[in-house]
Amino acid sequence: MKKSILTLASVFLIAFSANAQKVEFEEYDLDNGMHVILHQDKSAPVIITSVMYGVGGKDGDRKRTGFAHFFEHLLFEGTENIGKGEWFKIVSSNGGRNNANTSQDRTYYYEIFPSNKLELGLWMESERLLHPIIGQDGVDTQNEVVKEEKRQRTRAYSNILPEISKNIFKVHPYKDPNVGYMDHLDAATLEEFLAFNKKYYVPNNATLVVAGDIDIASAKKMIKDYFGPIPRGPEVVRNFPKEEPITQEFKAKAYDENIQIPAIIAAYRTPSFKTRDSKVLDMISTYLSGGKSSVLYKKMVDTQKQALAVQAVNISQQDYGVYALFSLPLGKTTLDQLVAEMDEEIVKIQTDLISEKAFQKIQNQFENRYVNSNSSVVGIANSLARYNVMYGDTNLINTEIDVYRSVTREEIREVAKKYLNKNQRLILEYLPKKK
Q1: Do the beta carbons of residue 66 and residue 185 sit within 8 Å?
Q2: Domain that holds residue 347
Q3: CB of 249 within 8 A of CB of 423?
């Protein structure tokens, strides 16, 4: 009877998610190619104006890496109508807040305002696009800001992903860090920054999301007034080199003066987040290390007490992903022992079907994530922009969960067999560096 009650509860959870959480939106294109997405939510007097540009760390000259991250800072410097240093003052004095972030694939800017400040938010984002001031003074200022940001990134183990990427990618731009190399930024000329802006920060490489307590008709008029006159830019064409498959395990070492305990990482190159296989790898990660009751944590941390920490993560991106198994040793446990223990669990997934109980637990975890991701207007705006820019399908905000729901235990086994093999990986020793 208990099993029946649990199953019934799962059915109700899925039904609730499928119906109550659907996100309604409207989307269209301006004549200049800018994609617009509107989402109305009158539950609170708040609006968000956001723009996601299809430009990230992978874009640009490989001798001038880090430009997209640099522009994340530079485009707050000011415009023809917003003075230097005034951007944040305008936002805060009008009861708002704002931020931006950059990945290898895209850059995202947003403002959150009281709903009566919608026009202000639209004007500011149109100013960023139409009238940015990119001068030597601003470049020099932000160069120092980026350097200081990089100096402050001294968290233990924070450089693991760049170290994995530079080893596992040989020719694709993902091999270079998202923040770039400081000597590239130091050597860049003002003309190069201007050219980068002209190429990537154009309306036809951008998606505008307006969400929250809005009137659709008046929002459309304001969007047309502020963004419609911005001229279309050249089409962004990408032709990145393709990676050859990894067919033999290889090893590398990296050093970090901010750590005292070494780490071991087994990393595999995986497909784009657009693929179904990538979704299955997400589920495998959750099975292995999604919480303290997960397979690897219970085994290596709780029971055998071999590891201080263990994690499996699918870092999927637009062109390629990285699947990484990470662990820190406890006591006299060696790095090789940690790899062997993680491998043992991978082989089990490749050989046998995971249990029905474990499979149902994963499904419930993904249902909860889905509900939580759509629980705020800020999260919804981000998701709408991301699904449009990165996947080319805005409605994935409602349908991506169906992919996870349709994954089978057999698929989990087959995907593990396809990608998580010893001859397809990098073994990275991440070691303390003597100061």
Answers
A1: yes
A2: 250-432
A3: yes
Q: What is the DSSP string of 354-399?
A: PPHHHHHHHHHHHHHHHHHHTSSHHHHHHHHHHIIIIIS-TTHHHH
> For residues 260 and 432, what is the distance between their CA atoms, to the nearest angstrom?
5
pLDDT at 233: 96
190: its two tokens: 């003002």
Domain boundary among 227, 261, 281: 227
Residues 35 and 182 in one domain: yes
Question: Which tokens hold the place of 183?
Answer: 């000597």
351 and 395 belong to one structural domain: yes
For tokens 């057999």, the residue is 410
Tokens of 388: 């449009």
Task: Decide if pLDDT at 19 tops 50.
Answer: no
Q: Residue ranges of the alpha helices (H) in 131-275?
A: 136-152, 160-168, 182-187, 190-200, 216-227
In a domain, 18, yes or no: no
210-235 pLDDT, tens digit each: 999 999 999 999 999 999 999 999 99
Looking at the structure of the chain, the number of domains it has is: 2
β pairing state of 35-40 and 206-212: parallel
Token pair recorded at residue 322? 């990285």
Give residue-wise pLDDT tens across range 131-152.
999 999 999 999 888 878 777 6
Residue type (1 letter), 194: L
Angle 335-351/276-289 helices, nearest 10 degrees? 120
- pLDDT above 90 covers a percentage of the chain that reads 89
Clarify whether residues 184 and 317 are in a common domain. Answer: no
d(CA 265, CA 427): 6
**For residue 167, is it within any domain?**
yes
In a domain, residue 24? The reply is: no
Q: Is residue 14 scored above 60 in pLDDT?
A: no
- Mean pLDDT, residues 199-220 taken together: 98
Q: Does residue 298 share a domain with residue 209?
A: no
Q: How far is CA 116 from CA 92, 214, 215, 308, in A?
A: 14, 9, 11, 50
pLDDT of 332 > 80? The answer is yes
The pLDDT, as a whole number, for residue 15 is: 42
pTM given for the model: 0.92
Q: Does residue 364 form part of some domain?
A: yes
Q: What band does 17 get if pLDDT is binned at 50, 70 and 90?
A: very low
Indicate whether 392 and 423 sit together in one domain: yes
